[in-house]
Amino acid sequence: MKRCIYCKCGLSEESVIDFCERCGHGAFGEKMFKVIVQNMKDAKERGDLHQ
Predict the structure, then answer these.
(1) Is it the case that residue 50 has pLDDT exceeding 80?
(2) Furthest-apart CA pair in the chain: how many Å?
(3) Which among 11, 16, 19, 25 is placed 20 to 30 Å from 1, CA to CA?
């Protein structure tokens, strides 16, 4: 199981980011968090995350 890099709570294996939503909002703000998640989802679909 993946864990949040900030608070260590559990994340689903399908998560494209390594931090939970609560920590993401706290670290980056709501707008930036949404952009980060969308960009990571797009990269996963393109296959850019599998090196």
Answers:
(1) no
(2) 29
(3) 25
Query: Which residues, other chains included, contact 51 with Cβ-Cβ below 8 Å and sequence gap of 6+?
Result: none
Q: Within the chain, how many helices (H) and strands (E) appear?
A: 2, 2
Number of other CB atoms surrounding residue 19 within 10 Å: 22
What element of type H or E holds 10? strand 10-11
pLDDT tens profile 4-49: 999 999 999 989 999 999 999 999 999 999 999 999 999 999 988 7
- Residue 47, amino acid: G
Handedness of CA 50, 35, 14, 46 (dihedral sign): negative
**Residue 30, both tokens:** 């709501």
